[in-house]
Amino acid sequence: MRPFFAALLIGGAAAAQQADPDAVRIHVLEQRPFTEAGRWELTFFGSTQVNPKFSMHAGLSAEMAYHLRENLAAQIGLWYFPLSVQSTLSEELLTKARVAPESAEALLVRGAALAGLEVMPIYGKLNVFDGKILRLGVYLNGGLGAAKTRLQLRPSTDPGTGRTFGDTGYRPIASLGAGLRVFLSERLTVRLELRDFAYSGYVSRVNGCNHADVVKIEAAEAGGQSATGLSSGCDERAFGAPGTQAQLNAGAAKALLARPSADVINNLTFQGGVSWLF
Amino acid sequence: MLPPKSVAAPLAAFFACGALAARAEEVVYGPDGAPTVVQGKLHSMTGQWEAGLSFGIALNTALVDQLGGLFSVSYHPNEWLDLGGEVLLNHASLSTLARNTRADLRPRSPGQVGDEISNDNQLRAGAFAVGRIAPIYGKFNLASEMRVHFQAFLLGGAGAAQVHRESVNLCADPGTGACQSFQQSDKVTGVGLVGGGFRFYFNQRWSLRTEVRGYLFRSSYKRGNDLTDPSSGAQKPYLAAVATFGAGLSFLF
Description:
The structure holds 2 protein chains of 2 kinds. Chain A is of the alpha+beta class. Helix content of chain A is 20%, strand content 47%. Chain A has 4 helices and 8 strands. Chain A has an 8-stranded antiparallel β-barrel. In chain A, β2 and β3 (72-86) form a beta hairpin. In chain A, α3 (211-222) runs antiparallel to α4. Chain B is mostly beta strands. Chain B has 2 helices and 12 strands. An 8-stranded antiparallel beta barrel of chain B has the order 3-4-5-7-8-9-10-12. A two-stranded antiparallel ribbon of chain B has the order 1-2. Chain B has a two-stranded antiparallel sheet with strand order 6-11. At the A-B interface, α1, α2, β4 and β5 of A face α1, β7 and β8 of B.
């Protein structure tokens, strides 16, 4: 009988321990199976703006990062937005109510280059349908750089010109972001992040031309001539083919430059992509 | 009363095996082969009811300010699925941008024809049947000490909602005088919804639920409206989408 009582006690104790909720509160130090420290990471993202009030942006980006430590990386990235246009709302306001956002609010980003840092203070695990366990990191990043910008001059519904743009040059841009990195393997990760691109929306020149220049261009093109006495750097032909098209585009630029406005634009962008660690 | 000797040994072996099995269940091996613990779910959902209350704000309605609340009740038949119902109540009104646009409208003239600005939908109330599928369960550490368990889910559903529309640019008063009121309509329409989000567990009972969802429904705007004759023009239907961000507490029982 003694073996029976001994087994009964052991079994009961084990069962009691199993039922005790404290039994799951165990600190176990588990070595991470791999480290990011000292490795490079190349990421390709698809990006889309998630606050498209007056502008819409969608595009691609590539980012190279070097992980200085387990949770700190230096990174440089390039963004290109093939779709950078005024929103449907902007065009509706223009065509249906004859109102338009100020130039500072409708400034578009065509491309950007930023360098910055990333910290990954939160580390965790997840599993999918109780299957494979994957590791994840939650990170914050920030960067500074330059952006190539432009303004939309004519709406897409314009039967004569279609959608046209004017170049507004380069300007500084800053970004702050937060994201999630899921390690599919030691080398491959999936990244999801939200980035706020902030840039100055002050516009004083379009295609290198100031307000006085575009007034001259509009008048000259209406008369079938080229404008004279333009300021240095002003490119009349950037407004389009001689005649009506250049006149209409210069007229739109004139309206945008008539009341120069300043604003800091926050372009909130969702990015999803994959990265390769090496 | 003690069992006879003939069954004592098998019983002893059974309880010993039970003890070993109970111990063995605590160890779950990770993908790297290292023995780990707490890799199973700390918070089980199977067979539980859930009641939630959350606040939501519209993300993509520049012409409308929309803020409201959502009450939900659902049942979890297993770890990955819950099915239930929701009631939505919103306070919705035209935004500052819409009011500024109205203020800048040009005077009406006879024979002037215009189209209505779309996406002025005010989603004021609704009731939906909703299902959530939560394939991802995970945890992370805050400051290396505080463990946070979470669940990521996708949701879908359908129901009906009351949608109020107040035109931004089409006047309800005939004639060319200053516009005192704008065209309005109310209707109850079928709504589909899709979304996704995270649940962060405080404990087995309480959790914080955050989600982004899109309400999809049929709406319309007027084309070819004589600005001096509100009854003119034809409706152009389109699929409206109102995206919202919501956050709230849920209680499991």
